[in-house]
Amino acid sequence: MGYVDGFVAAVPTANREPFRQHAERAAAVFKECGAVKVVECWGHDVPDGKVTSFPMAVKCRDDETVVFSWIEWPSRAVRDAAMGRIMADPRMQPDANPMPFDGQRLIMGGFEMLVEV
Residue 76 is part of which domain span? Predict the structure, then answer.
């Protein structure tokens, strides 16, 4: 089975288009380095929770939208081998592709696929 890197972030709603452009540029690098698929989703029906929720997890403000993203890899080994190249790629540097959101509130993690249908 494959491997997935998952992400949740709060992006200023006014930065939807800059975020889309940022994500497209980054996706090209991930794909070149072996990613099978890169998916970026703009929140549409993301309710506030009472105990936990996506908005609570990223401290989403009224002028922000929750973004849910994932990168699918053929394996963790492919992902681990690619990360050094990705981080060193000039297209991924902040001056070339600045993040249009607060990266300190980005949640990320790597996951082994358990079920895939």
Answer: 3-112
User: Are the beta carbons of 34 and 27 closer than 8 angstroms?
Assistant: no
Region 1-24 average pLDDT: 97
Separation of CA 35 from chain center: 13
Domain count, the chain: 1
User: Is residue 34 classed as helix, strand or coil in its secondary structure?
Assistant: coil
Q: Is residue 117 part of a domain?
A: no
pTM for the predicted model, two decimal places = 0.93
